[in-house]
Amino acid sequence: MKLGIVGLPNVGKSTLFNAITNAGAESANYPFCTIEPNVGVVAVPDERLAVLGKLYNTQKIVPSVVEFVDIAGLVKGAASGEGLGNKFLSHIREVDAIVHVVRCFDDANIIHVESTVDPVRDIDTIDLELALADIESVKRRLDKAERAYKTGDKKAAPEYELLKKIMIVLERGEPARSLKTSDDEKALLNTFFLLTSKPVIYAANIAESEIGKPDNKYVQTVKAKAAAEGAEVLVISARIEEELTKLDSDEKALYLQELNLGESGLDRMVKKCYSLLGLMSFLTAGEKETRAWAIRKGTKAPQAAGVIHTDFEKGFIRAEIVSYGDLSRLGSVAAAKEKGLMRSEGKDYVMREGDVVLFRFNV
């Protein structure tokens, strides 16, 4: 799954990306220092893998991953090509969800493209540009759906009615995701691939000195904005996260303890993004490899097997499953079998978070 890190110039976007991936994307005190999207693959923190690794004397541990894309800054007029707008819009269409970094700190030494700090204004700026781009897309769809609807095509009615609702929202400069929809409408909306329908996490970037303190006035306004549209907020200091990536594991643990933090902001972000996309993990374990596999919630066993290899899905026979909780508590598959906790599941089984699985197949 691919997530795009977006934000106005100089809000801490590239600094955060550097911390997430430790990839060294250029970060400088001027707009558009990130010209082409930088891509980094990040492990999803999963403490269960180390436990299973010890149980199986595993040679290799492979976590599930999320792909982050650092996308060039955006300014007013991007929908008509201002700044790097055209590149921004093309790159953002390719991601599954958005991490929108907003500046929530004062610093006279760091130039803001709008001269003042106002995270809600910054959010509205990007939402408006994306909405303008979506309006063009919706207009084309709406014209086609209207013609079909007027000829009596009953199948066109749901799309026509939904597109009219979306257009009203977009023309107000609001994102399509803010529209209240039924389950059927939501499924239809997803087929439109609109920029503003993508799920969002707002990364409220605060100063190092404010870690562990009550939300400042900027963060409070971002949280109110997010609550109104059903988005999530993660309060984070990009600078501190960047510092943490330079430390070894012991130094990192000590620094987090000094900051009274249970885990880094980046670990929290990756987990939150994983959840935002409706993902879960099942696990496979053995001497050669212990691994977490990402699937969407609601995935059935054969399709989960297909994530490992298409042959597993084609020749699926059954899935032998024990829950991670039972396996870690009992210490071995043999003990789980003895207690009757190893299950044999068929094609209709819906996978659960933390299933430890051995797929049986025949091709």
Task: Describe the overall structure.
- This protein has a 6-stranded mixed β-sheet with strand order 2-4-1-5-6-7, with helices on both faces. Strands 3-9-8 form a 3-stranded mixed β-sheet, with helices on both faces.
- Helix 1 (13-21) runs parallel beside helix 8 and helix 4 (119-150) runs antiparallel to helix 5 (156-171).
- It has helices at 13-21, 48-56, 85-92, 119-150, 156-171, 183-190, 217-229, 238-244, 249-258, 265-276, 301-308, 310-314, 324-330, 333-338, and strands at 2-6, 38-43, 61-62, 65-70, 97-103, 200-205, 232-236, 279-284, 290-296, 316-323, 343-345, 355-361.
- It is flat and about 65 Å long.
- With 363 residues, it is an alpha/beta fold.
- The longest helix has 32 residues, at 119-150.
In short:
The protein is α/β, with parallel strands linked by helices and 363 residues long. The chain has 14 helices and twelve strands. β6, α7 and β7 form a beta-alpha-beta unit.
| Cα Rg | 23 Å
Total number of helices? 14
* Tally of strands: 12
Order of helices and strands: EHEHEEHEHHHEHEHHHEEHHEHHEE
Q: Mean of residue pLDDT?
A: 87
Strand order of the largest sheet: 2-4-1-5-6-7
Low-pLDDT windows of residues = 23-35
Could you say which structural class the secondary elements and strand pairing correspond to?
A: alpha/beta
Basic shape: flat
Oligomer: single chain
Main beta sheet strand tally, sense and closure: 6 strands, mixed
Helix % is 40-55%
Strand content: 15-25%
* Gap from first CA to last CA: 29 Å
